Amino acid sequence: MGVQWDGSAAFEKFSGAFDSVVVAAGQQAVLFDQGMVMASLSPGTHTPANLPALGQVGVGAELVMMTALPWSAKFGSKGVHVKGSGRLRHFGEIRFTIVQPERFAMEVLGGLDPVRVAGDAVGKLLDACALEWINGGYMTVADLAPSIDKFRQTLGPHIRQAVEPLGMGSVELVDFVPNVG
Questions:
Q1: 8-state DSSP, 88
Q2: Quick one: CA dihedral 62, 34, 19, 66, positive or negative?
């Protein structure tokens, strides 16, 4: 089976025996057989002639294709209760790069969506930080959205630490909107 991914998402998983794999510019891929990394693929057309691992994998082989370019994803937090205001949730966007393709692909094969996991982690961090700042009297709910730069500065190292095990890096909080209801 030949595989050529359209790149319409951050990643996609394919299963089967592969006789060719086309990795476009701005993409990367990792080939697995029986849970073991067989090859990391850079842009180009890969066949058993130029990538012997393709000829060595069976019908149970898996291929994870992913973007090599910065990617943006939306997130929403589960929310926290703010005394006197109600439930506080954050909705926003993060931008990231997949810096460790093999690690990222292993998460995908393990049944995780690393992009969703990263978004959930950012949402939890925003909720916890906002709650601490509000309860500590440092700001009000109305002060949250205009303080995005303060959140970026404070949470940046924590966000990077949360997504590094997923094979992601260069993560930034692009935007967020607090919602109280």
A1: E
A2: positive
DSSP type of residue 151: H
Compute the distance between CA of residue 109 and CA of residue 116 in angstroms, rounded to an integer. 15
Beta-bridge partners for 64:
13, 30
pLDDT tens-digit map of 94-140 = 999 999 999 999 999 999 999 999 999 999 999 999 999 988 888 88
35: exposed, middle or buried (C-beta count within 10 Å: 0-12, 13-18, 19+)? exposed
Q: List the one residue out of 56, 65, 43, 46 whose CA is nearest residue 17.
A: 56
**What is the number of H-type helices and E-type strands within the chain?**
4, 11
3-class SS at 138?
coil
Distance CA 2, CA 103 (A): 24
pTM over 0.85: yes
* DSSP annotation string for 85-113: TEEEEEEEEEEEEE--HHHHHHHHHTT--
| Other Cβ atoms within 10 Å of 161 Cβ, number | 11
